[in-house]
Amino acid sequence: MTIHFGEWTIGLNGEGAPARELIGGKAWSVARMQELGLNVPPAFVVTTRACGAFLAGHATPPGLEGEIAAAVAWLEERTGRRFGGGPHPLLVSVRSGAPVSMPGMMDTVLNLGINDETEAALAEECSDLAFARNTHRRFLELYAHIVLKAHAPALDDGASLEAWHATIAAAAGAEVSREPREQLRRAVRAVFESWNSRRARRYRQHHGISDDLGTAVTIQAMVFGNLDAHSGTGVMFSRNPLTGEPTPYGEYLPRAQGEDVVSGKFTPEPLSALAEELPETHADLLAAARTLERAGRDVQDIEFTIERGQLFFLQSRAAKLAPHAAARIAVDLAREGLIDEEAALMRITPDQVRILLAPHIKRSALHDAVTLASGEGASPGVGIGVVVRDSDEAEQRAHAREAVILARPTTSPEDLHGMIASRAVVTEQGGSTSHAAVVGRALGLPCVVGCGKGSLEALAGRTVTVDGQAGKVYEGALAIESPDASDHQALATLGEWAASRSPLRVSPPTSPEAREAVDLSDNDAAADPTRIGEVLRGLTGARGARGGAIASDEGVCAALAVGLEFIVAEPVLPPLLSALRWKSEAASSADSNERV
Amino acid sequence: MNETHLVLHGLAIKKHATPESVAGILGLDVSVVRTTLDKLVEAKRVVEAQGKYLLAPAARMALDTEYTPLYEDVRANSAFASGYEEFERLNATLKQLITEWQTFDVRGHRVPNDHSNKDYDRKLIDRLGNLHERAERALDRLASALPRFSIYRHKLGAALEKAEDGEIAWVSDAKIESYHTLWFELHEDLLRLMRRERDE
């Protein structure tokens, strides 16, 4: 059984997961990992029941402070560290954890437990003064921002501790406690209070979630990947997220903390480097990847830290995948029996397939292509047209059915109409977060940014081909080609599975049936996904349709709603997937209607 | 602030705009905007096309010269200046956040976010909410000097709430008054008043 420190607090010791409603999503996932036999940094949880009592009485419920003290002592015992003191200080993270996730809950506070004394102890323990100092500064910034909700400026690394506290006190309007136990009490209260934040209340009201659920607080020991040569931190995917190959892929940074991996300041080593240094740990990691993948029935993205040779799992969640990998993995997982074929078809979206099958420049055409400009590829796709330097002109010429490419020094909201009218957008200045990049992606428009000051001036009036993936602008109209679903083995398989289950037939234009379809190509309303439903409802006696926006998600849904037997489209897989999603949503809403 | 200037300013931000959208962003009565636009069309300072209005080139140049004298007090106002500085700081975070919303990193490759990972989207919308709370404080300071800035606070909040409720187009769709669309209009508004240039 899990350890109960009293009425409000539970220690997670790996012996069965308490109810999610009681301990919240975060602690629940910690307990789940423990159940799978994985080593997780020790943690305890202040339950949602304590939150309810706190909010009802506007005060810390009786006994909670004593329970937290006992639970901290339990953490100290399990970690061999001491909270608020040396020589081995215990630092903790404090997280909110509601039974269902919602916006507006308190952000995570890290490294709570650091003060003047423990900073010195930590510096000694990891032989790194700067690290301990930096940890202290980041803790104070987070604490001021999240717990005190003070609008404090960034703290200066070179300033004294006194100066840091003075800066925060000035912004918060009160002295900040330097006592870790008091900071922990304040942080727990702040989590409880965030349950009633404006955003959280509004969200619950809108989604019919009870205000009585409350949030739990998870307090977990921090582990250090920078203590010695047998320490480090890394991330691992149970399969390759870029190619989909069924081999684990990971990166490892010896003598480092988690933030070093994401900062990009250091170049991590491949996981295989760990196989030489710590072969047993490496083997444990690979075994854990398989375990987590089977339990989650999906590719896992796993964060881990090794502290003095001891492996800790920090987090595991479904991995984000490149479209190509998503297709291959969906098929592989079904073949391995982790999921069924229906589930595999839900793992890949119509948009991912559209990206995979999007037209690209013919390889042979690239051979002699002249590059007129190059920059950062900010939004994928290929666009061909005449270069125009002004948004008004772009709109006018596009209106006259000319294909135009908008080339600007930069773009701003004033250029939106010009961007919408263009086949691609190219800018001289700005990076992947610039207006052109952001809006280009929002519009699904090929976009190349940052080609260099003045680099596009000479292009006005010339016909070019823009490759938004490669970040290139080529002279002339290059030949393009569309990949075929049969070029991708996984897509071909998914296509067969989808066709046998779809409530709507999708026929290629070359099929005999295609001639029987009502052609919507000349209907302006049918070209608009938001209006194609009206058009289809007006058809009588039609069995199938083609043209306009019929292959879009909206077109497919409208076709199913009016009871068409088939549509004509190429490629066939995206509309098939849309139809399957429609069917699955219809089934689940029928389900919930029955329950009501 | 006279209505003619405000309507011209609204058109400079909204570009091809209906009277309703200009009125909406400025907090003016639609009938007032319509009357002003009619006068401006007659004076050839504004052009009408299919129910939408845009600035004539000469009117745009004339408008650009109005900001320096008209907003001298606003620029000198310390609350406004600090609100603007905070906005610029938040702008860097917002752009990064929207980029992560639209694309994610897979082993160093940026891949378009197809929004199939609900957990990823939910975390980003929550971060947008945190950023919005800071933006609200900046907007309050801006509005203390120029009350119409509270309209952005209201509209940004409305876009955020729709996104939180699952209508994710309200994060960055360029064709509606999404969070990102409004944010950029707000930025354009501020750059004009402050006589600054966009840096990219």
Helix content of chain A: 40-55%
The neighbouring-strand order within the major sheet of chain B is 1-2
Look at the structure and give the mean pLDDT of chain B. Answer: 91
Low-pLDDT sequence parts of chain B: none
Q: Report the sheet with the most strands of chain B, covering strand number, pairing sense and barrel closure.
A: 2 strands, antiparallel
Helical content of chain B stands at over 70%
End-to-end gap of chain B: 30 Å
Number of helices of chain A: 22
Please mark out the parts of chain A with pLDDT under 50 across 5 or more consecutive residues, or reply none.
none
Question: Cα distance, first to last residue of chain A?
Answer: 37 Å
Taking all Cα atoms into account, the compactness measure Rg of chain A is 29 Å
Shape of chain B: globular
The 3D shape of chain A can be described as globular
Specify which chain pair forms the largest interface. A-B, 51 and 45 residues
Order of the strands making up the biggest sheet of chain A: 15-22-21-17-18-19-20-16
Quaternary: heterodimer
Structural class of chain A: alpha/beta
The proportion of strand residues of chain A reads 15-25%
Can you give the mean pLDDT of chain A?
Answer: 91
How is this structure best described in words?
- The complex is a heterodimer of chains A (596) and B (200).
- Chain A is α/β, with parallel strands linked by helices.
- Chain A is built from 22 helices and 27 strands.
- In chain A, the strands form 6 sheets. In chain A, strands 15-22-21-17-18-19-20-16 form an 8-stranded mixed beta sheet. Chain A has a 6-stranded antiparallel beta sheet with strand order 1-2-3-8-6-7. In chain A, strands 11-10-9-12-13 form a 5-stranded antiparallel beta sheet.
- In chain A, strand 21 (463-467) and strand 22 (472-475) form a beta hairpin.
- In chain A, helix 5 (129-147) runs parallel beside helix 6 and helix 12 (323-335) packs antiparallel against helix 13.
- Chain A is globular.
- The radius of gyration of chain B is 18 Å and the shape is globular.
- In chain B, helix 1 (3-14) crosses helix 4, helix 7 packs antiparallel against helix 8 and helix 8 (150-164) packs antiparallel against helix 10.
- Chain B is mostly helical.
- The model of chain B has no long low-confidence stretch (mean pLDDT 91).
- In chain B, the strands form 2 sheets. Chain B has a two-stranded antiparallel ribbon. A two-stranded antiparallel ribbon of chain B has the order 3-4.
- Chains A and B meet through helix 8, helix 12, helix 14, helix 17 and helix 18 of A and helix 6, strand 3, strand 4, helix 7 and helix 10 of B.
